[in-house]
Amino acid sequence: MEYRWGFVTDVDSDDAPKGLSEDTVRFISAKKEEPEWLLEWRLKAFRHWLTLEADDAEPTWAKVKYPKIDYQDMIYYSAPKKPGDGPQSMDEVDPELLEAFDKLGVPLHEREKLAGVAVDAVFDSVSVATTFADQLEKLGIIFCSFNEAVKNHPDLVKKYLGSVVPYTDNFFATLNSAVFSDGSFAYVPPGVKCPIELMTYFRINTEGSGQFERTLLIADKDSYVSYLEGCTAPIRRTSQLHAAVVELVALDDAEIKYSTVQNWFPGTKEGVGGVYNFVTKRGRADKNAKISWTQVETGSAITWKYPSVILRGDNSVGEFYSVALTNNHQQADTGTKMIHLGKNTKSTIVSKGISAGFGQNTYRGQVKIMPGAENATNHTQCDSLLIGDKCGAHTVPYIEVQNPTARLEHEASTSKVSDDQLFYLMQRGISEEEAHHMIITGWSRDVIKELPFEFAMEASQLLKVSLEGAVG
Amino acid sequence: MLEVTNLHARVVDVEDGEILKGLNLTIKPGEIHAIMGPNGSGKSTFANVLAGRIDYEVTDGDIKFEGESILETPADERAHKGIFLAFQYPAEIPGVRPWQFMKAALDAKHESSGEKKLSVREFSKLFDSKVAEVKINPDLMKRSLNEGFSGGEKKRNEMLQLAILEPKLAVLDETDSGLDVDAMRIVADAVNGLRSPDRSFILVTHYNRLLNHIKPDVVHVLANGQLVETGGPELAVEVEREGYKRFLEEHVPANA
Amino acid sequence: MTTIAPATTIASYARDFSKNEDGAEWLTALRNKAWAEFESLGFPTKRRGNELWKYTDLRVLDTKAFSRAEAASALSSDDLRKIAPWNDDWHTAVTVDGQFSSELSRNLSGDDIAISNLIETAERDKAAVEPALGSVADIAGNAFVALNTALFKSGVLVKVDRDAEPAQPIHILHIVTAAGADNRAFYPRILLLAGENSKTSIIESYVNVSEGSQFTVPVFEASLSDGAAVRHFRVQLENEQAIHLATTRTEQPDSAVFNSTTFATGPAIGRNDVHTNLSGEHSETNLHGLYITDGSSHQDNEISTTHQKPHGTSHQFYKGILAGKSRAVFSGKVLVQAGAMKTLALQKDLNLLLSHGAEIDTKPSLEIYADDVKCAHGATAGHVDPTMLFYLMSRGVRREDAAIMLVSGFASEIIEEFEPESLREFLYSRLERIIPELDSEGIL
User: Is residue A381 within 8 Å of A351, Cβ to Cβ?
Assistant: First the structure.
């Protein structure tokens, strides 16, 4: 690759020029004032990505259809149009953004601090506001944008970046490793139970831009943290790529609870536009550690994500609770991987898929018991509901067992909303649409109850709104 | 209150599915009618058709409630008008709490009639008092609707809903089946407690047992999709003693 | 992206293909088409993106060549009875080393059934065979159906008249004898034509008593007419060096029922690829099976059903017992197409792992495009249940006996389905020999 110094003068601009090259990577890194080692890491990822692209290695196994993505026809870095390095205080945050937070129930305002949530907001590719940082600091908890973490806690970042999702992991994770712009970082020191929920709110704004944020969460020994993630995007006629990477590290005896309410723009009713949500999320659970993923996925034109846990420590626990809804022309291929390495490791999977309209909804999950995982257990329950005769619900579990002492149970069911249940509710005077909503929310309860309270309310509302027009 | 004329109904999607073959019935406010019949005579079908279940299609005749035909009225609006069906096999609904369910039902009723909805506090008070009244175990109310309820508990839960919604016409579909004596008394107490000059009941039953606890004004025998005989409580006694043989023999199906 | 098999091995199959001596032109044309398909497909040895063969590695076929067996060794009917399920009353067609044996076959015709050498009948009676052969087992995209179609030697045609209900089962028995060279290939072909409202019981068995490595590529295709009911039993007793890649295909119009139960044990690489196509309303298929693997054996079950029309029912129920360093695969698939309302589909795969080297890969998948359906699946994997073991021991049963009892009990749920009784007894006696010998780290 030719290296063009002349490009450097463009550093002052807010958006990277369209297209992807080594220059783009260098532009982003320079814009972030990153140290040399990180630029090198990005470049390694980028060079690897080129080989993947040449090898036509963009994943095709998922049950989703979309036109071929032109990776040269995209903006890889886009900062909010603000002078300086973004808002210096909450007052400077774009009011529209705050309103968006309000709509999602994200308590970003001062008055809502009582709710006890620390928020890091990532607007397009840049972290715009982090609340509560001071209070957390007293406990030794670091919660900041990824960019700040690189500057202020380089050792931690260097040690753990790519340790769970290496830059070679998969096509989209590799792309992210090359061009990620910002994201959230959290570190909870040994023995500390983080007293408030940490939250990141993501929003894509600029048209034609991809969003590639990177989240790294480290729960040191015997610590606890609950982390929330919310996402929205405005209505756009063109599709936008969101290829994020989330890495969780739960050291011995630590616990991480990671909750997502994903409401990216799903495209229009006719299936125009919407976010391509191609996300790699994985956690590593050391001895006695626990990682729990909860997700409510109602948005995105296409969802491709498999939050996973590598149960490498003895007695470690992995959980995955998911509700994924596809209406209109949405497509979701989502599930989890539970890789059991340690002894007495335990995993639980509860997946609820709802298909309506022309939506296609696939659960794809892998449970792998490695030879050394004595007495590992897994229980998987995945259920699908179909609403209407134009949609599809698919279940594809991969269960791979290499140890005879393991105990695995997998159950799945697919059906429509039961006529008996509907009639029962309607006979008591509840409208058909409300009855559907009540049944679907009840059916999803095992997942929704895993969410923190505010998020649970939000999730239930989102299910309702997302299904509007699908019944009745 | 209820006027059913020449009602013919069939199961949707099933050939030869006609079950009701010209049923006539008139119920005045305050009356209790018992409809008795052997298995397969169309008792449950009639109860479900009254409540507006879409698996059944009315092919002839009419159902008038308070003077208006309700054939085109969907199930939820029939409920708002005051028709209540106590189910023989109430559906189990995972994740839906009985409290939440009843609040939504009562809100819908009030909304439809233009009445003010109860506040959460007001409703809770009402709910708790009714729970005590029908002597249903309050712990059950913390579970999902009907999930893990015994047969008797499900029937009690139906009576709880009846007491909360206070319908004009309550249809009890084999509510006595599978009940022990205590549970039977609960059901009877609930019905007797709700008797009023402007509230009517239809008790659909196979046996006379429930009728020992609730005294009906009129007893009908349903056979082959028609009401073939009507009388007073003594008819129920005859059925108990003699069975349904006579009625079946005397009334060959109309289309046979 | 076509993978062409290396010339070294493909040449061997090409040689066999050139030796075909079909009399009928239409058959030659079909074979040419099949060969062309095989040549363009090659063996499915590609690893990346090869979902259908994700867990089964066939690369050995790219390096090791097999030649079609052209002659049979002598075998007496007494010898036969010792090694294979047998009953004098059954309608039995026997192939020995890939050659149809008129001497050993018996009761080939009845009042309303006819069993014959497929090639001979094809040449004699074009009208009866041409429309059916290959109509259910499609060569398109399937290297092994294509290879079988190009190379099958004799084959068996079973024709059951409309309304027929033969009292005795039809047994198609394939024997590979101990004599004869290594690296032979066999292409058994069965074509079953089940007439309207007929009821047939058919046993398909494979007994390999040779020591060496052999390659068997059977294709069983069943064309059912409206209301036909077929009870199918498949018995696969291979040797541990064998490669056995079997294909079963059915076409089921209105109210047609195909129930199949399989028992598979033995091979280095085994594949039981079953697809039933419910193309009519109210049709039904029950696909059950038991696989027992030991040593370095590998048994792959690729079981799929397509529901095209309303009111169809399908059950997939497989059980596995895995020992030694063996590996088994269950890949079940149910596809419910748009409009196939009131479909009822159940899938279940239960596994018993007896040793640390063994691996089960199970993938029961559902693909559903109709809303008014009830579909469910389940899969389990586990060890001999210690509480059950303890219970039996507390009653005085010796530990080894208790373990054998539990493993046999696990297997018997499937074995019990085999009919008639003499077949079931044959399998039980096999089981009695197999189970205590399994490499189970001393559990058995």
Answer: yes
How large is the ipTM? 0.92
CB A431 to CB B84 under 8 A?
no
Q: Would you list the domain boundaries of chain B? A: 2-250
Residue A206: per-residue pLDDT: 61
Question: What is the average pLDDT across A339-354?
Answer: 98
Contact A427 B94 (CB under 8 A): no
CB spacing of B91 vs A418 below 8 angstroms: yes
What is the pLDDT, as a whole number, of residue C403? 92
Contact A426 B94 (CB under 8 A): no
Taking contacts as CB-CB distances below 8 angstroms, the residues of chain C near A402 are: 356, 358-359
Q: What pLDDT, on a 0 to 100 scale, did the predictor assign at position A95?
A: 60
A window 362-421, beta carbon within 8 A of B: 418-421
Q: Is residue A94 very low, low, confident or very high in pLDDT (cuts 50, 70, 90)?
A: low
Full DSSP string of C13-41: HHHHHHT-----HHHHHHHHHHHHHHHHH
A61 lies within 8 A of chain C by CB: yes
Question: How many CB pairs lie under 8 A apart between chains A and B?
Answer: 84
pLDDT at B250: 76
Gap between the Cα atoms of C239 and C282, Å rounded:
40
Best residue of A383, A425, A444, A457 to probe chain B, by most B CBs closer than 10 Å:
A425
- Rounded to whole angstroms, the Cα distance separating B160 from B135 reads 9
Asked whether the beta carbons of residue B91 and residue A420 sit closer than 8 angstroms, the reply is yes
Residue in chain B closest to A421 (alpha carbons) equals: B91
> Where are chain C's structural domains?
68-386
Q: What digits encode the pLDDT tens for the residues A16-39?
A: 778 899 999 999 999 889 999 999
Once rounded to an integer, what is the mean pLDDT over residues C171-188?
Answer: 93
DSSP notation for chain B: -EEEEEEEEEETT-TT-EEEEEEEEEE-TT-EEEEE--TTSSHHHHHHHHHT-TTEEEEEEEEEETTEE-TTS-HHHHHHHTEEEE-SSPPPBTT--HHHHHHHHHHHHHHHHTPPPPPHHHHHHHHHHHHHHTT--GGGGGSSBTTT--HHHHHHHHHHHHHHH--SEEEEESTTTT--HHHHHHHHHHHHHH-BTTBEEEEEESSSGGGGTS--SEEEEEETTEEEEEESHHHHHHHHHH-SHHHHHH---TT-
Chains that touch C (3 or more CB pairs under 8 A): A
pLDDT at C374: 94
Contacting residues of C for A378, CB less than 8 Å apart:
none
Distance CA C217, CA C152 (A): 9
A439 contacts chain B (CB < 8 A) = yes
For residues A62 and A364, what is the distance between their CA atoms, to the nearest angstrom?
A: 8
State whether residue A441 sits within 8 Å of chain B by CB: yes
CATH number for domain B2-250, candidates 3.40.50.300, 1.20.58.340, 3.20.20.70, 3.10.129.10: 3.40.50.300
**Segment C351-395, tens digit of pLDDT:** 999 999 999 999 999 999 999 999 999 999 999 988 888 888 888
C-alpha distances (whole Å) from C46 to each of A350, C5, C43, C50, C58 are: 34, 10, 8, 6, 9
Given a cut of 90, whether residue A100 has pLDDT beyond it is: no
How far A25 CA lies from chain C's nearest CA (Å)? 30
Partner residue facing B96 (CB), from A420, A426, A442: A442
B91/A423 touch (CB, cutoff 8 Å), yes or no? yes
pLDDT digits (tens, 9 = 90+) for A378-431: 999 999 999 999 999 999 999 999 999 999 999 999 999 999 999 999 999 999
Check CB contact under 8 Å for A389 and C371: yes
Q: What global pTM score does this model have?
A: 0.90
Predicted pLDDT of residue A82: 47
